């Protein structure tokens, strides 16, 4: 425990003593990142699952501790906010999505921050973009077409497997994954069937996720647990383990459609599962909170959590994503304030 506290304090000290230039964080960072090595998965270990115990009060205390951290300010904050931008899966998952909506979203992903603001921070030539664009399967082809026309390598992510409920027939869910990959998606955000988790059918859940993984082919797979529907921290931890055992490259908190989405207590449980899985298997798995993340301040807290719980490797887009639609707007507002000393009027920033 003393080693853990020492590590935490050291991480915070580094956070508060970052180099005093915005561009320093990106000096050796390649925005056109390559994804981390695939998680091949392991055989389902039911004994591991049966021994799971989650200390509920300790989880809540740790989450409160993370949220009460003093956050970085001024140029340090600007640098961390730009890092957050490069980890965003810029998302539109609305019933009224059209090709024009997706086109605008993709162009925003390629230029997420106004050029003059980046130039003021000496970041205009660093290729700052969002990590990916996330859309419904029916809009994947539109996103791929727009990004290719813009000569951008930003990956297209697609939700699948009966998103958001995951209650359609298994054959239909698998075919949806295959179709999204065929249309050009290089990342697939699958959603689990929560019934299997709630009733303890871990073998059945494992088998389904393995089939989704096979259908993804070379596309990286993020598994959405829909934590708001799982009922307990213990179920969240077990579902996280099963998803990773089945070969998920990322585990993701929520669809954004549940009543409860990405919360810090749930995140603590999930990232501890990632850490335990790494220690036991040697395989790194990414983490993606999604749903309800709207402010720049929240993005800084999420980065702090990842740094303290998993380390610096999880501060990059190959192992950390922020699923969000409106977050980018507030980050750009805060960067505008850092550069100009005032907040922008509504018309002064491009539409996100």
Question: What does this protein look like?
Answer:
The protein has 352 residues and is α/β, with parallel strands linked by helices. It is built from 14 helices and 8 strands. The chain has an 8-stranded parallel sheet with strand order 7-6-5-4-3-2-1-8. α12 (264-281) links the parallel β6 (250-252) and β7. The protein is globular. The termini are far apart.
Task: Give the topology, please.
Blueprint: H1 2-16, H2 46-50, H3 56-67, H4 74-85, E1 88-91, H5 99-110, H6 115-120, E2 132-135, H7 140-149, E3 156-160, H8 170-182, E4 187-191, H9 194-198, H10 202-216, E5 220-224, H11 233-245, E6 250-252, H12 264-281, E7 286-288, H13 296-309, E8 322-324, H14 327-340
Parallel strand pairs: 1-2, 1-8, 2-3, 3-4, 4-5, 5-6, 6-7
String of helices and strands: HHHHEHHEHEHEHHEHEHEHEH
Radius of gyration: 20 Å
The gross shape turns out to be globular
Please report the total strand number as a whole number: 8
The largest sheet has its strands arranged as 7-6-5-4-3-2-1-8
Number of helices: 14
Strand content: 5-15%
Low-confidence stretches: 1-20, 27-32
Straight-line N-to-C gap: 44 Å
The major pleated sheet works out as: 8 strands, parallel
């Amino acid at each position: 425990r003393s080693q853990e506290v020492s590590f935490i304090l050291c991480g915070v000290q580094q956070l508060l003593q970052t180099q005093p230039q915005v561009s320093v964080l990106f000096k050796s960072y390649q925005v056109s990142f390559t994804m981390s090595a695939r998680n091949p998965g392991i055989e389902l270990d039911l004994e591991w699952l049966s021994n799971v115990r989650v200390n509920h009060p300790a989880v809540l205390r740790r989450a409160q501790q993370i949220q009460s951290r003093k956050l970085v300010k001024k140029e340090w904050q600007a640098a961390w906010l730009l890092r957050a931008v490069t980890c965003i899966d810029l998302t539109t998952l609305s019933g009224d999505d059209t090709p024009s909506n997706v086109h605008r979203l993709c162009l925003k992903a390629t230029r997420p921050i106004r050029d003059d603001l980046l130039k003021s921070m000496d970041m205009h030539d660093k290729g700052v973009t969002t990590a990916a664009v996330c859309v419904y399967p029916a809009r994947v082809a539109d996103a791929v077409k727009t990004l290719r026309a813009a000569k951008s390598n930003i990956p297209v992510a697609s939700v699948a497997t009966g998103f958001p409920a995951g209650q359609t027939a298994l054959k239909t869910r698998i075919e949806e994954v295959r179709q999204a990959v065929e249309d050009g998606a290089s990342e697939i955000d699958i959603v689990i069937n929560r019934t299997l988790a709630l009733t303890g059918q871990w073998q059945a859940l494992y088998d389904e996720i393995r089939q989704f993984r096979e259908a993804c082919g070379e596309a990286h797979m993020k598994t959405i647990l829909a934590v708001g529907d799982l009922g307990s921290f213990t179920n969240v931890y077990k579902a996280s383990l099963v998803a990773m055992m089945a070969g998920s490259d990322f585990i993701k908190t929520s669809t954004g459609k549940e009543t409860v989405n990405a919360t810090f207590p749930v995140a603590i449980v999930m990232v501890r599962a990632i850490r335990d899985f790494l220690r036991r298997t040697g395989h790194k798995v990414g983490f993606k909170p999604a749903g309800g993340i709207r402010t720049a301040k929240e993005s800084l807290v999420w980065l702090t959590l990842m740094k303290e719980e998993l380390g610096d490797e999880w501060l990059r887009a190959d192992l950390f994503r922020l699923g969000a639609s409106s977050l980018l707007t507030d980050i750009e507002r805060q960067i505008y304030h850092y550069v100009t000393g005032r907040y922008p009027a509504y018309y002064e920033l491009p539409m996100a």
